[in-house]
Amino acid sequence: MIEEHVKIHDKFSVEMKVGFTAHQEREVNDFSMNMWMYIPNALDINKYTYSKYEFYKDVKSHIRLITPIYRLYEIAQPEELPFKLLKNSFFKLTEDPSKSNIADYEMHIKMFQSILKSSLREEILFIKRCKSDENRSIAISNYIDNTSLITERYRSLGNILKVPVIEQNVFEYFVFCDEFMSNLIELNTFNLLKYLRDTHDDVYAKTKSDILRLINNEINYKKTNGFPVVEKESPSANRDVVSRFSALKKYIESQLFLKVKMHEDGVFVRQFYYSLAAGISMIFATIVTFSFQSKYGNFTLPLFIALVAGYMLKDRIKELSRYYFSHRLDSRYFDNKTDLNINDVPVGWFKESQSFVKEDQIPVEVRQLRNRSAILEAENRINDEKIILYRVGMQLNRRDINQSNIYPVAGVNNILRFNLTQFIRKMDNPHVPLYVTDGESDYKIIEGEKIYYLNFILRYEYLDQLELKRYRIAFNREGIKNLERF
């Protein structure tokens, strides 16, 4: 199964998270994703002004495991897998603080926090989707109770580590995760509080005191343990909070990221065809030389002219042959291939390629989904949109994934961020003066906003699954204004 979630990441970047879920009954799972980007002609983005190198500079890709899914109440139960594995790793560490047990303990606290992060997010979404205020209030009460229980049980494990055999730096791994957990709960709970205040006045009034108690408990806990907290009038302290939270997030989520090794796809095949191109050009030059040599003999002017002309044409034939083979190979092979590993165990590969394509090279169903307006279709006959095709191939081995991870991992996420900064270089000013009458005796000048639209269409293929999705980004020189899904 393939699922995607597209959102605005920042002022000039769009983030696309694509989840590739490997079927439990299939050992080898092959996925395919194509993305066509329709770029307005006015931006002057084409194969001559925007190379593969520049495209891959604008694309930031992370491949990581899909976080194991547990509900918040399950994480709070000591007999469930997340807490059970976590607790066992603590006891193993105190019995034998070897390097392998330290690594195992660090892995489990990171995984526990990653699972909690995902679970808190899903619990907030569940509360937002409740159909009635009564169910929403019950869900909020359960959220507070389970969250409090999880923090209490996690922090109680710290007492296990307070023995002489545990070094301070090893204990600090536990402290890092504790601080991250506190920040995580505070952030998600404030998100919940804001949602209730904006949309559900009655529920907000009823639950506000309990929700704020949970938040204040975490703030006081952080102050007691010397963790940085947000302060109303201290920009430097707040910078420290943001910076530290970002560093802790990267530390925690590092456990989910796969070890990758990138290399050029089809490198040996390409070199073979490039050698073939050199051979073809050499055959031509040799035939010309032998022909003139047999007719005019050695050390003659015609042979000299033939050698020079043959050498000149040989280089052109070689380059034309390379261009022909390269164009044919691009449709069969990818630009890059990334080998995916979990704990040094190969679990699959990821491939990607980028190229500019013409309208008639695009499948009919994709062209229909593009659905240009009449005026844009008329303009497109004169100034056609430029189209980038970004291809992705993914292969995952279900058996290897299961054997390399003790947690139930569904598959991998490819988190793709695309930066649009280079697309704004040749944009017009974002604000345009417009004129309106002010009664019958005067007029006013008002400001209109000039917007450019970047359409992209996704097509997923996996087993019998074939899906098409269309998104549109509205942006100008000031940044991204909106993201729509059709």
Question: Secondary-structure map with pairings?
Answer:
Layout: E1 2-10, E2 13-21, E3 28-39, H1 52-58, E4 59-65, H2 72-75, H3 81-95, H4 99-129, H5 133-156, H6 168-199, H7 201-224, H8 235-253, E5 259-264, H9 267-296, H10 301-330, E6 336-342, E7 345-357, H11 364-370, H12 374-380, E8 386-397, H13 398-404, E9 411-419, E10 431-438, E11 442-449, E12 452-462, E13 465-476, E14 479-485
Antiparallel strand pairs: 1-2, 2-9, 3-8, 3-12, 4-9, 5-6, 6-7, 7-8, 10-11, 12-13, 13-14
What does this molecule look like?
The protein has 486 residues and is an alpha+beta fold. The protein is built from 13 helices and 14 strands. An 8-stranded antiparallel beta sheet has the order 5-6-7-8-3-12-13-14. It has a 4-stranded antiparallel beta sheet with strand order 1-2-9-4. A two-stranded antiparallel sheet has the order 10-11. Helix 5 (133-156) runs parallel beside helix 7 (201-224) and helix 6 packs antiparallel against helix 7. The longest helix has 32 residues, at 168-199. The model is unreliable at 374-382 (pLDDT under 50).
